[in-house]
Structures are given as structure tokens and as C-alpha cells.
What we know:
Blueprint: H1 7-15, H2 24-38, H3 49-62, H4 66-78, H5 85-97
Amino acid sequence: MKTKLDSFERQIENAAESYRPLSKKKRQKVEAILDRVRKSRTINIRIAESVLEELKRRSQEEGLPYQTLISSILHRYVTNRLVDEAAIRKSLQLLQQQ
């Protein structure tokens, strides 16, 4: 039985020759990073009903499950990539006034 590949899979097959193997050291580093990312824990959290409803609404807009959205927000926070748009706008206004 022959398996049909979708366009993405065909693209990978066509580019296979351009891939280079990783050194043992780099491979171990990548695998360690992947292990950290794959590990997850279940937690319980109390959250206001109104906040949860807003998170669910926003997650529908983003097209992903609300728990994934919450996890993403927390990840961006701990990696200092959560952006406060109001603070950025205020900073831009101050810079434009100078």
C-alpha cells in the first residue's frame, strides 16, 4: 500500500538532502530542551468567573483552547515576553513628545 503525502510532507522530502546531522553535543542540548518543554504538570487555580469567561472568549478569537492560552500567557510572563500594550503606547507618546 502506497502512502500519499500531503504538500507539507512532500516539501520535507524534497528538502531532505539539505538537512545536516547534528553533532552529539548539539543533539543532547536539543533533546534536553525538548524534555523540559514536554514535561508538564496539572495545577488547580482559583480564578474569578469574569476573568475565566474573558479568557474563554479571547481563546475563541485566537482559535485555541483556553487552557492553552493561559499556559501561553504564563510562559510569556516567566520568559519576560509578556507585553503591556498600554505601557508601550505611553512610552511611544513620551518619545514622540521629545
